[in-house]
Amino acid sequence: MKMLLRFPSYLHEEPHIAEVILETGAKINIDRANVDAVRGELIIDVPRDNVERVAALFREKGVEVRKLMKLIAWDEERCIHCGACISVCPTSVFKFDSSWNVYLEEEKCIRCEVCVKACPLGALACVE
């Protein structure tokens, strides 16, 4: 399951991810990270059997945690199946089916938002 972690600036120097991995034994994959002087924001992928424990430990450490149930909103009625999203997606979330219609494999999404910017009709949006 994907989770969004937001670290305030005062937590940047602490190895919270390493601590959570060691405490839970969970195999956490970092899909996307954006860290600057003000805060850090990460999208991580956590095995379903460890989600609750991992979320609780991050919260105990002062990290804001949100489970990402839906990663991207796709308005299929607006979509003209042009493939702009396919050409820019770094994780191949979007594909053409045998009828040349776009379909998506949402579990691959890392919320980079490149597809949202590339869609000429605004048929894509990141869900908050």
Biggest sheet strand line-up: 2-3-1-4
User: Rg to the nearest angstrom?
Assistant: 17 Å
Helix-strand pattern, N to C? EHEEHEEHEEHE
CATH architecture of the largest domain: 2-Layer Sandwich
Helical residue percent band: 10-25%
The CATH class of the largest domain is: Alpha Beta
Number of strands: 8
Mean pLDDT: 90
CATH topology of the largest domain, by name, is Alpha-Beta Plaits
In terms of structural class, how would the helical and strand content be classed? alpha+beta
Tell me the count of domains: 2
Taken as a percent bin, the fraction of beta residues is 25-35%
Head-to-tail CA distance between termini: 16 Å
Structure at a glance:
The chain has 128 residues and is of the alpha+beta class. It contains four helices and eight strands; from the N terminus they run E-H-E-E-H-E-E-H-E-E-H-E.
Care to describe what's here?
- It is a single chain.
- The chain is α+β, with helices and mostly antiparallel strands and 128 residues long.
- The chain folds into 2 domains: 2-68, 2-Layer Sandwich (Alpha-Beta Plaits), CATH 3.30.70; 72-126, Alpha-Beta Plaits (2-Layer Sandwich).
- It is built from 4 helices and 8 strands.
- The strands form 3 sheets. It has a 4-stranded antiparallel β-sheet with strand order 2-3-1-4, with helices on one face.
- Helix 1 packs across helix 2.
- The radius of gyration is 17 Å and the shape is elongated.
- The two termini are 16 Å apart.
